[in-house]
Amino acid sequence: MMQFKNAWDGFTQRHPKFPQFMAAVQQHGIQAGSIIEVQINTPDGKNFTTNLKVSEEDIQALRSLQDM
User: Which of the four, 21, 39, 45, 59, has the lowest number of CB atoms within 10 Å?
Assistant: First the structure.
């Protein structure tokens, strides 16, 4: 657990806007019907994009993980 915390602390120092983004998402909440999109642009110019529409089952699964 401590190793994860150290890794997370380093990540947030390198990317300070990401925790702010996550806090805003958490404050508003992800609702069923929301669309999550991820885009990766590699240094050699390749682009990968995917998205998913969040279902009620997805929300329940995320809540179960939070309760662990």
Answer: 45
Decide: 17 and 10 in contact? Cβ < 8 Å. Answer: no
Backbone φ and ψ of 55, nearest 5° = -100, 170
Q: Going along 1-68, which residue ranges are E strands? A: 35-41, 47-53
pTM, two decimals, is 0.70
The b-or-e profile of 16-37 (16+ CB within 10 A means b, else e) is eeeeeeeeeeeeeeeeeeeeee
Tokens of 15: 């990317």
